[in-house]
Amino acid sequence: MKNFVDAAYEQLIISGGDSRLLLGEDGLNPYGCGSHPNEQLAFGSCTCSTPSARGVAAAKAIVDRLRRSRSTAEMANSIRTEQRMRLKTLLRLPKEVDVAITPSGTDVELLALALAAGGHQRRIVNIVVGPTEVGSGTTLAASGMHYDHLVPSGRQVESGTPVCSQLADRVTLKTIDIRDDRGEIINEVYLDTLVTEVVTEAVASDAHVLLHLVAHSKTGMHAPSLECIDRISRNLPNDVTIVIDAAQGRVSRRGLREVLNKGHLVMFTGSKFYGGPPFSGALFVPPRWQPRHRGITTLPSGFDDYFTAAEMPESWTEVRRHITGSQNYGSLLRWEAALAEMDAYYRVSSETRLVILRAFEESVPEIFNNAEGIQLLTVFPPIHDDTQTRLLESKTTVFGFRAHANGQALDRKELKEIHRDLNTAFNAVSTQSTMSRRFHIGQPVPLNDDMAALRIAIGGEMIVRIAMDLRLGVSLEERIEWMRAELLHLRKKTEALIAMRATTHASPEPIPDATLVVN
Fold it and tell me: Cα angle at 21 between 17 and 23, to 5 degrees?
């Protein structure tokens, strides 16, 4: 956004990204989130979140700080430096790791591809594991293509066309599903074997491989295994770049340090688990892949539409010098809000966080397992000791579920309607306390060609609320009971909406807009 001084917070917070940020007439983006706090019960952090009052205050404070400065550009650059340092401190990242900021998690794909492709002219085979369970634009971005018609610079482009033809021509995309035709989880040993075979075949053809490990997919899956990528890294150290897709943010800080110390790239966001406003991305770059060690002095042509110099680490001197894009103020504000949420989360004691996470992990199956028309998906069993090999924090924070009416599974279109209606307050005499509630849950994710699942997730902002908000109850136990009660209301409203589709295929009447004023 060029005219920053005259722009309002409402414009800035949704600027500098793609069309997913844009709000409709209802004040919500395509995922059901707004730019201001509202009365939604937030169980959808696996997709994105409406910002909290804390996040909005942090973003608005940056707006004020910039407007008071003598040089907006210099102040924005200084804030970017602060943000990178705060992010490293909060996550306890190794000091030698560089942090590159991006407008969204999908944009991180382009930057990871550029680093893997730099310093050589080999073909790139980019292997995305679980393509339907990662970001919707991942496969296009991983191919070096525009994934949306609107790019962060504000320019209109044609989705599916190359960002940089010279780079895109070198890239071959390979995808490996993590669910079978029935929507069930594929056996880990088989999946690891398949990944290894695809990598080996690509390297044998003299290609360099960029291999993704998804560390918590949209439905909570991890693939391939850490043991698999360790073997591949040992056997093919100069032929494979490993990137950990930790965009959900549902990872342990210890796990992050371990994979970074092994030399793997890590994709991260502040807008999933932590509850920052949509969207904010980052790439954590260990020394091996930093531009000065790869002979990279410039990003591929066309990347100026996605990244600004200030978003790149200060040590990337030549790369920054060649970027012509102006400051991305929208990204600046969104990351400030995300960092406020992260700071609040880590200020809650680890013991309290664990109690709340365990309560959620136990409550969802207990409340939803016998629900009418609802079938929870199989999840990885939680690990309750310190010998974990997954990057999860040993807790289950996302539960997917399928919905059935008249013995038939609801398709993705019908689930999108359920998703919308859960986020709508309805008039209902007999079930007013349930139907008038607004729940934001994770949007439908495809399991196969015919099946999809909605998702119930807990995020950092909800955990902070349960830990700290005495309005929900005087004791932690009472506040956890509040969460359980809201999950029960979510179950009842979901059951009611499914039942309506079984009989009338229609939605109930919403409460008039005048009663839904967003503060």
Answer: 145
Taking a C-beta distance cutoff of 8 angstroms, is the pair 338, 249 a contact? Answer: no
- Is residue 56 within 8 Å of 46, Cβ to Cβ? no
Which class for 88: exposed (0-12), middle (13-18), buried (19 or more C-beta within 10 A)?
middle
Measure the CA–CA gap between 129 and 134, rounded to whole angstroms.
9
Cα gap 456→351, rounded to integer Å: 23
* pTM beyond 0.70: yes
Determine contact, residues 278/48, Cβ cutoff 8 Å. Answer: yes
H/E element, 476: helix 476-503
Distance between CA atoms of residues 344 and 460, nearest Å: 8
Q: At what angle do helices 350-368 and 460-468 cross, to 10 degrees?
A: 110
For the chain, the structural domain boundaries read 72-339, 348-515
Question: Which amino acid appears at position 399 of this protein?
Answer: F
User: In the Cβ-directed half-sphere of 136, how many Cα atoms lie within 13 Å?
Assistant: 14
What's the rounded Cα separation, in Å, for the pair 75 and 342? 22
**Please, are residues 499 and 372 in contact by the beta-carbon 8 Å criterion?**
yes
Query: Exposed, middle or buried by CB within 10 Å (0-12, 13-18, 19+), for 213?
Result: buried
Number of Cβ within a 10 Å radius of residue 79: 20
Query: What is the C-alpha to C-alpha distance for residues 287 and 276, in angstroms, rounded to an integer?
Result: 28
| Residue 299 DSSP one-character state | P
Q: Report how far residue 41's alpha carbon sits from residue 415's, in angstroms, rounded to the nearest whole number.
A: 18
Look at residue 344 and give its three-state secondary structure.
helix
CATH of the structural domain 72-339, one choice from 3.40.640.10, 3.40.50.300, 3.30.479.10, 1.10.3210.10: 3.40.640.10
Alpha helices for 23-118 (secondary structure H)? 53-68, 72-91, 105-117
Run means of pLDDT, 10 residues per run, the chain, 519 residues: 71 96 94 90 93 97 94 94 98 98 97 96 97 92 98 97 98 96 92 98 98 92 93 97 96 93 97 96 98 96 97 97 90 98 98 96 96 91 54 74 93 95 79 83 90 96 97 98 97 95 67 39
